[in-house]
Specification:
Distance between the termini: 84 Å
InterPro entries: DUF5682 (IPR043737), LolB (IPR050458)
Number of helices: 33
Oligomer: single chain
Region (Disordered): 112-140
Protein name: DUF5682 family protein
Organism: Emticicia soli
Radius of gyration: 36 Å
Structural class: alpha/beta
Pfam families: DUF5682
Largest sheet: 4 strands, parallel
Strand content: 5-15%
Shape: elongated
């Protein structure tokens, strides 16, 4: 005897009826929808340390990106069926198309698509232009016609036909009211007979589902597994499957020959499948899983599973308790009135009992007083309920995954679905090890930790935000080819990336990742390759991009007590080479490349400032002076150079005013003057607010522009001034209203400045330096 039970995945009523039928039938084998590769892992269901929500992860061992999740909740009919079978020690098998074949079909489709595109591309190349135009026009007309016909066909899920007849716009809500809420413990047969009859009618009417092509293979394989169980002399077989498949699994004899042909057409594959359990979350139960099922209210369903007799009072009490914990005044009267309103809504809608929709609408009206923001709190905390499951530690795992979890436990970094913020003090051993671990994961492109802004000053402070996503386990398994431990895998992965690049800038970024991760073997090899490539590179622009990450490591790496002598030597050599070749590298560049070079110059200047080395600073400033007087350099670059030298007091106000005046003189073209001004002012306008000499030069230059020249330069001027802060622009506007400004005020001439005693500040400054940790 074969009994087919059609269910809704994650359906509470389905789970209760499945249990009732299993108790009544006492089968000798249970077949549950799911790929056969899951047979080994479902034996863990019933283990006390495996707590739903959890999911089976099935993946291609040779290509872990090809992976599928099969989530289970406590109220999933499949979970309860397997739990019943394991408890009763009854054989249980999964019933679906193997994952290996599904993945092979996907690969074949992708190869066929690429082949078709290549053939089309080759055809287009061989045809002449006239034929291409005719073909393009014909295809466009045909595509438009097909699109119009396709859009005219109504596309909806099969059960929507029944739900619309009942007056529902939401087919899932109709199913819930008809089959999930109306549970009758004494008569589960009627429940499954009704579902079977409905699906039979839909299939007889040839109403197809959205996955019909795939279902042909799946259902043929399902029937084959049932026949195999019969041939093994199991006489009382219970099959739990999605309701849509139920009718076609009953006819096993007449479909045997056809199934044999279908199964022979399936591709042969050598794909090996790995499976394991992973923690899941309620929020992710609403996402599509391997069999395309999802729910949006797992917290509510869990409540119904735990308290089947509750008509709403217990649920509304939870809502009231939630609001009270948030310091809101909710009385018993609120709960009573909310329940009465929910019951009234259910009666108006001809429902046997109030469901989630009625409870939610009543809560919004009474407890939330119409405030949808408060209702969102109920949705997050109760309706969805952000719960994460647990899996046993003793589960078979990849060595890398096992090492990752062991380190996480040792460092007290929990794998949770909630965002956890950590502020690390690198002077403490635990926090330093946490930082190293997170940087190693970041080096492997596993984004568990996200670096945040640390509120405390000082280079010994770091802030991280952690949020675990199940997909990160796929990334971790994928990286297992690089090593069995996090440290060796991160090192090998970085070295492999380094092997594939000849870019100095990319190598510098890899070194910047390796230093805080303390991948010492990798650092040594990365530095060797960087030095090797840099020694033969003549690309000044690429060297400039390399300096900033290396200077940052050189300046702040000593917090981790890392030997930085090699990096310091490299940085010094790079800056020296950049300084020598800077002027020639800037010669003859157009506006676009000059703008990019402008950014590179600013970055190198910042790196020199970070290093605080007198020799390098002098060499760099000499290069900037050479660039300032170089002919054939774009004015954006010379304007930027003048500003940098002024900021570090290598040019005084008088010298800067001279450069400013030369750039804005009538002898220069208006385009040249505008470009120079853009380079000089890019990033900050404070110099114009504070220096009246420069302001007057700019004011007079703009005032003397001819009408045509002004219109031509207006876009450049607007682009320059639009990047200033709103407050700065407002102050510049106020200053422009006053016209030419008076001479600069010299602070030293004030009476207060004359009486200022510098020696009295020394004690205060020393104390402040100690508090800020400044050496």
């Amino acid at each position: 005897m074969v009994t087919i039970l059609g269910i809704r995945h994650h359906g509470v009523g389905s789970a209760k009826n499945v249990l009732a039928m299993l108790e009544k039938l006492s089968p000798d084998i249970v077949l549950v929808e799911g790929p056969p590769e899951l047979d080994n892992v479902v034996s863990w269901i019933g283990n006390k340390t495996l707590k739903p929500p959890v999911s089976v992860l099935g993946y291609n061992i040779n290509n872990p990106k090809q992976a599928t999740f099969y989530p289970f909740s406590e109220f999933s009919p499949e979970w309860q069926a397997v739990l019943y079978a394991n408890t009763k020690q009854i054989p249980v098998r999964m019933l679906d198309l193997p994952l290996a074949i599904s993945y092979q079909l996907d690969l074949d489709k992708e190869q066929e698509r690429q082949k078709t595109e290549a053939e089309k591309e080759q055809t287009r190349i061989e045809q002449n232009e006239e034929e291409q135009d005719k073909e393009k026009q014909s295809k466009e007309e045909l595509t438009a016609e097909i699109t119009e016909q396709f859009l005219a066909i109504p596309r909806k899920e099969p059960i929507a036909y029944f739900s619309e007849l009942a007056g529902y716009t939401d087919s899932e809500l109709w199913w819930e009211h008809q089959f999930e809420q109306k549970y009758q413990a004494s008569n589960p047969e009627d429940h499954f007979d009704s579902i079977m009859l409905m699906m039979e009618n839909l299939r007889e009417a040839q109403i197809s589902s959205s996955l019909e092509a795939e279902n042909v293979f799946r259902e043929a394989y399902m029937r084959e597994i049932i026949r195999k169980a019969q041939n093994e002399f199991f006489t009382n077989i219970v099959v739990i499957c999605g309701a849509w498949h139920a009718p076609v699994l009953r006819d096993l004899e007449s479909t045997a020959k056809g199934d044999t042909k279908i199964l022979k057409s399936l591709p042969k594959t050598k794909i090996k499948i790995g499976t394991t359990w992973v923690p899941w979350t309620n929020a992710r139960l609403s996402m599509f899983s391997g069999y395309g099922a999802g729910i949006t209210s797992p917290g509510w369903y869990r409540h119904l599973w735990k308290y089947p007799e509750d008509k709403g009072i217990r649920w509304l009490t939870k809502v009231a308790r939630l609001f009270r914990n948030k310091k809101m005044d909710i009385s018993t009267a609120h709960v009573i009135e909310t329940f009465r309103l929910a019951e009234s809504l259910a009666a108006l809608r001809n429902l046997s009992r109030a469901g989630l929709y009625e409870m939610t609408e009543a809560t919004l009206s009474v407890m939330c007083m119409g405030d949808a923001i408060l209702l969102e709190l109920v949705r997050q905390e109760l309706i969805v309920a952000n719960v994460m499951g647990k899996v046993p530690r003793e589960l078979p795992k990849h060595p890398l995954q096992e090492n990752f979890e062991e380190i996480s436990r040792k460092l007290r970094l929990p794998l949770t679905a909630e965002r956890k913020d950590f502020e690390l003090d690198l002077r403490k051993e635990l926090d330093l090890n946490r930082s190293i671990f997170l940087y190693r994961l970041e080096a492997m492109d596993i984004p568990w930790g996200k670096r945040m802004y640390a509120r405390s000053k000082g280079t010994f402070k770091e802030a991280w935000q952690l949020k675990w996503e199940p997909e990160m386990l796929i990334d971790l398994i994928e990286k297992s080819i690089w090593g069995n431990g996090v440290e060796i895998a991160a090192t090998t992965y970085l070295l492999d990336k380094a092997q594939k690049t000849q870019s100095i800038a990319e190598l510098a970024v890899l070194i910047q990742q390796a230093i805080p991760a303390e991948l010492f073997v990798g650092i040594e090899k990365l530095l060797f390759k960087l030095n090797e490539i840099a020694s033969i590179s003549a690309d000044i622009a690429e060297l400039m991009k390399t300096v900033v990450p290396l200077a940052s490591v050189s300046r702040y790496g000593n917090v981790r007590k890392t030997d930085l002598s090699t990096i310091n030597s490299l940085v010094e050599g790079f800056i020296t080479r950049i300084s020598i070749g800077l002027a020639n590298a800037c010669y003859g560049l157009d506006e676009e490349n000059s703008t990019q070079m402008f950014e590179n110059i600013k970055q190198v200047n910042e790196a020199v400032r970070l290093l605080e080395t007198d020799t390098l600073t002098q060499v760099w400033h000499k290069a900037l002076f050479e660039l300032l007087d170089k002919q054939g350099v774009h004015p954006i670059i010379t304007g930027c150079t003048c500003r940098l030298l002024f900021d570090v007091k290598q040019l005084d106000e008088q010298q800067t005013a001279k450069q400013f005046g030369l750039a804005l003189s009538t002898g220069q073209s208006a385009i040249y003057s505008a470009g120079w001004l853009e380079g000089f002012l890019k990033g900050s306008s404070m110099i114009l607010l504070l220096d009246n000499v420069l302001w007057n030069l700019l004011y007079k230059w703009v005032a003397e522009l001819q009408g045509d020249s002004f219109i031509e330069l207006l876009p450049i001027l607007r682009r320059t001034f639009s990047k200033f802060e709103v407050g700065e622009r407002r102050q510049l506007g106020e200053k422009a209203k006053k016209g030419v400004a008076t001479a600069n005020v010299v602070v030293e001439d004030h009476e207060e400045a004359k009486n200022f005693r510098v020696e009295r500040t020394e004690g205060v400054l020393n104390t402040i330096a100690e508090l800020l940790g400044i050496n």
